[in-house]
Amino acid sequence: MENATSQENLANKKILIVDDQFGIRILLNEIFQKIGYKTYQAANGVQALNLVQNERPDLIILDMKIPGMDGLEILKRVKKIDQTIKVIIMTAYGELDMIQEAIDNGAITHFSKPFDIDEIIAAVKNEIG
Known about the structure:
By secondary structure, this protein is α/β, with parallel strands linked by helices. 52% of the residues lie in helices and 21% in strands.
């Protein structure tokens, strides 16, 4: 019975995955759905901000390199909408300036691509349960 309850609690937790790469969105979406989270996907900044406005996710996994509105701009706008939303960023290896600026703007942690999926799962569980 305890397992069902923890599963229900996770279903109340919302994760938004923002990445212009379809494969990465699908992979992360599948993994977090299997764990039991409610997931949303966005391929660009406009979609991401609409979902933030309408769904108020608990956590966003945000790629920094997105055509159009980049990850930093999305992060700043998300924080204007709701300061409490936690944001984990993903970057290509070695984008240190961007990582620091994202942390300064409220991102909680970052992962370099290619990422270790177990590390991302652990970080998400650590932040939102």
